[in-house]
Design goal:
- Helices cover about 40% and strands about 15% of the residues.
- The chain has 18 helices and 17 strands.
- The strands form four sheets. The protein has an eight-stranded mixed β-sheet with strand order 5-12-11-10-9-6-7-8, with helices on both faces. A four-stranded antiparallel β-sheet has the order 13-14-17-16, with helices on one face. Strands 1-3-2 form a three-stranded antiparallel β-sheet.
Length: about 525
């Protein structure tokens, strides 16, 4: 039987090639041009005929098989299975709607449950949560916030419950402009967009900047939420390594020269997960490379206010003299995550485009939280609150470091962060993060395995991230002691399994917590 298929592809069409192939074969089956039992060309042969990648044909065949139109048989190839399907009206089919086959390519990329799993852990009261990088609940400024909210609702109840400007309340943007000037950034309120957390700011940047297939350079390790956003936009992520001294500027230059990336995403201050900060020398080198290769830098500065020294660090944005940096920050780490207020800053033309796009998503960040937050900040309460939490989180960090010094087995090492929420631990030889997490689950402690922070899942498996922000110092010490005891157990038994049941295939590490 002739296996040749007469399929024409429109390569300029917005319809993906695999869908064009699927639709063409589906139409030929419906028109009885391909009867039941017709042998379709092997994937490689059809790919060569059409001048596409084999994976494109594989995807088309998978979709047709999911619809019951074709079936693969060992030794016989892929055959059309049209007889019963053709005779059924669509509304008579007993098959359930296959929603997953209707998702667009962007939705298909968002398949990592890491963030939702981390948030789910917060409700597990008997687990020592050294995983989630969120503030301690007992440090929330609930009394001040509640009082200001009541006062403002009493003064102007209707105004605060209306829509507000998509770019954000001018009172809050004016405060933020002054806040940034204190760190050396000459930024006016017209160049600031109030967002629903810094994650929305990155998502808006990705949507206006990144085309599918564009290369984006990220630090490695890097924040998983950022990698998810960039992948969802279709970006190809390339990691530039961090070492004990910071970012590898030499490799960053090579990558910029080779890939001409669309963006470089970085957390130069108390980086997640490493906890390290770029030196001033490296910051200037990054900016020089951005200028030379015309690559915008996205600076995520979420932890800049959680410093344990005498003064805050200067931002890349403040050092930038050519308008090459887009800046993101959030109140989630300073106050409480449910506030969902962050901001983006940059050239006015970029902020204008981001504002136009965000109107399509949620119109504006909540008017009431913006207004209450602006009043809270203008009264000087944020400054007082930041002083308090720096002192408390420093105690949390010290408890974690002391516990590591007291209990860590030979071969285990870690950084000593000067701010932020995280300690980045290198495990003893032969111990893998996911295996350790499975063992530690039985002892009631959670953390994040290192694989979650790399562009390639095969990297980082001998690291873990410990977050000291959420728990009381006594609980931190207990949790670290349990982690170290589990490392010793794995090393002693000389096996990566220790009799613990493996997770189901496809589950992210944190789905087990």
């Amino acid at each position: 039987m002739n296996e040749f298929l007469n399929i024409s592809l429109e390569r300029d069409s917005r319809t993906p090639l695999y869908m064009q192939i699927r639709n063409a074969i589906r139409d030929m089956i419906a028109e009885k041009l391909l009867p039941s039992g017709f042998r379709l060309p092997p994937e490689r042969r059809l790919a060569a005929q059409l001048g596409v990648n084999r994976s494109t044909v594989v995807k088309a065949y998978e979709e047709l098989a999911a619809e019951g139109l074709i079936q693969s048989h060992v030794g016989r190839g892929t055959l059309v299975n049209a007889g019963e399907v053709q005779g059924q009206a669509a509304w008579q089919s007993s098959l359930p709607m296959r929603w997953t086959h209707l998702f667009n390519r962007q939705a298909a990329r968002v398949n990592d449950p890491l963030i939702s799993d981390l948030l789910a852990q917060l409700t597990e009261g008997d687990t020592i949560n050294l995983a989630a990088g969120v503030p301690a609940a007992e440090l929330y400024p609930t009394a001040d916030f509640a009082r200001i909210c009541a006062e403002m609702l009493d003064r102007k109840p209707h105004e605060l419950l209306e829509y507000s400007a998509p770019q954000g309340l001018i009172e809050l943007r004016t405060y933020l402009a002054g806040h940034m000037r204190e760190r050396g950034a000459d930024q006016g309120p017209e160049g600031i967009l109030v967002t629903s957390g810094s994650q929305q700011g990155l998502e808006l940047i990705a949507r206006i900047m990144v085309e599918p297939g564009d290369t984006v350079i990220v630090e490695e390790p890097s924040y998983p939420g950022a990698m998810q956003v960039l992948r969802a936009a279709g970006a190809r992520l390339v990691g530039v390594p961090l070492d004990a001294r910071g970012i590898r500027i030499d490799i960053l230059e090579q990558l910029m020269h080779r890939y001409r990336p669309k963006l470089f995403y970085t957390m130069p201050t108390f980086q997640n997960p490493s906890g390290n900060s770029m030196s001033e020398e490296d910051c200037r080198a990054v900016l020089e490379l951005a200028y030379r290769y015309h690559v915008p830098v996205v600076e995520d500065d979420a932890y800049c206010e959680i410093y344990f020294g005498s003064s805050r660090r200067q931002s890349l944005f403040a050092m930038d003299v050519c308008g090459a940096v887009l800046y993101l920050n959030t109140f989630s780490k300073m106050m409480f995550p449910g506030l969902r207020v962050g901001w983006a800053a940059g050239p006015v033309e970029v902020i204008r485009q981001m504002t136009l796009l965000r109107q399509l998503a949620d119109i504006n960040t909540g008017t009431l939280p913006q207004a209450v937050l602006a009043e809270y900040c203008q009264r000087g309460l944020l400054v007082n609150h930041l002083g308090m939490i720096r002192s408390q989180y420093c105690k949390h960090r010290d408890a974690a470091l002391q516990a590591l010094n007291d209990f860590a087995p030979p071969g285990m090492s870690w950084n000593e962060p000067e701010g932020g929420f995280y300690i980045w631990c290198h495990l003893s030889p032969g111990v893998k993060g996911e295996t350790l997490l499975r063992v530690c689950r039985n002892t009631g402690v959670g953390f994040v395995p290192g694989e979650a922070f790399f562009t390639d899942d095969n990297n980082g498996n001998d690291y873990i991230r410990i977050s000291y922000s959420r728990c009381h110092p006594a609980a931190i010490r207990t949790g670290v002691e349990r982690i170290c005891a589990s490392v010793r157990k794995i090393v002693k038994e000389g096996s990566g399994q220790t009799g613990i049941k493996q997770p189901a295939e496809g589950l992210a590490p944190l789905a087990l917590l």
